[in-house]
Amino acid sequence: MGAVTTDNSVDRADRVPKQDRSRATRQRLLEAAVACLAEHGWAGSTVSVVAERAGVSRGAAQHHFPTREDLFTAAVEYVAEERSTALRALFPQGAAGDRRAVVAALVDLYTGPLFRAALHLWVAASNEDQLRPRVTELEARVGRETHRIAVDLLAADESRPGVRETVQGLLDMARGLGLANLLTDDGGRREGVVAQWAALLDEALD
Amino acid sequence: MGAVTTDNSVDRADRVPKQDRSRATRQRLLEAAVACLAEHGWAGSTVSVVAERAGVSRGAAQHHFPTREDLFTAAVEYVAEERSTALRALFPQGAAGDRRAVVAALVDLYTGPLFRAALHLWVAASNEDQLRPRVTELEARVGRETHRIAVDLLAADESRPGVRETVQGLLDMARGLGLANLLTDDGGRREGVVAQWAALLDEALD
């Protein structure tokens, strides 16, 4: 964050950087929370651990996120939105004839730290009652948005029978590939699967 | 377990039921371990909890499985083998023209308590060093066997280019569908995806 360079209003100079600071702190906490979940899982992820990682006091962290559930569901949602925006930016003209590149980019959504973090959150939610409704709702929202992006980028015509289910199956496959990458680097096998199914998908969508 | 009905050899009468008893105890422990993992996750799954659930003393449980890792990896492997055998038995003549039924049965492998238990084990292994190599090796072995069954039942000719990757992608999709079913009952959506992808697969394999 830069130093304050305007002094035409003490009030404004005082207010704006405070908002900036607050936003930057929030963002640091969210990014630290996803990294923490991905590395240590739900059991090892507390507000204190994340605050320390983000270089923020525990009190400041709790000001932004009163509960552990607030922090981690907000974190997964925030990073998922960042990734969606980045994905759309990668293909400003949509698939433009290169569906294989789009399929590869969609699959990439499920192989990084975000997917790993989300997976820990889902699995924890399946056993913890206070987490479950929050994560279920989050998953539905992120899933709908990812589906929308996939349909747009693949130039898929969902008014045709079967097209919706074809795109859904592709995203299920991407999620399954993410899971297969959890314990070992599955990149070589994944590349072959993506190439083959991108070709099948191309036929199915035209 | 039946009573001892032969008395022509005290030695034999004494030995056989003991082996039976031991095998039955082992099996009860393995089944209880998978149910426990599926319901309570890794953190809530200890040898003591499983022994109690199986109605076996903690000492007897530890005689069969000296460590927690031994018990839970053996349990997931045992139940996976049981399911593989049951799946082959469902289609004694292979696909016999009904690939859609085979796809549905393959997907079913990933939506029950076994998948839920395996998922908890995988996720725990991603953060626990003493569990990780065991689970990685187990996952590879079970994955190879499931692939072999899928190829057989689908009558897929892997000597043709792309067929291997087509079958792999199907199993990745099945795994992703299992994950989507973790927090909510995803059966309705899943049915549509399975029908559509079975049709795509049918075209791709012929």
UniProtKB/TrEMBL annotation, chains A, B:
Annotated segments matching region Disordered: 1-23
One Pfam family this sequence matches: TetR_N
PROSITE patterns in the cross-refs: HTH_TETR_2 (PS50977)
Keywords annotated in UniProt: DNA-binding
Superkingdom of source: Bacteria
Gene3D superfamilies, per database record: Tetracycline Repressor, domain 2
Compositionally biased tracts (Basic and acidic residues): 9-23
Keyword DNA-binding appears in the UniProt entry: yes
GO MF annotations in UniProt: DNA-binding transcription factor activity; transcription cis-regulatory region binding
DNA-binding span(s): 46-65
Residues annotated as domain HTH tetR-type: 23-83
PANTHER family noted in UniProt: HTH-TYPE TRANSCRIPTIONAL REGULATOR PKSA, HTH-TYPE TRANSCRIPTIONAL REGULATOR RUTR
Protein name: TetR/AcrR family transcriptional regulator
Native source species: Streptomyces guryensis
Origin organism lineage: Bacteria, Bacillati, Actinomycetota, Actinomycetes, Kitasatosporales
